[in-house]
Specification:
The protein is mostly helical and 45 residues long. The chain has two helices and no strands.
Length: 45
Amino acid sequence: MLLKDEIDMIRDKLYEILRNGSREEIISISQELDELLVKFYRESI
């Protein structure tokens, strides 16, 4: 999956979670974003 597609997918999930999500879902999406940032950093080197 392309990085842009992953970002779009997470953004959509984030909007949904912020509308009706639980604390666990918000923590989960934060972890996914952290992993994506690491991946982005590694690909940009």
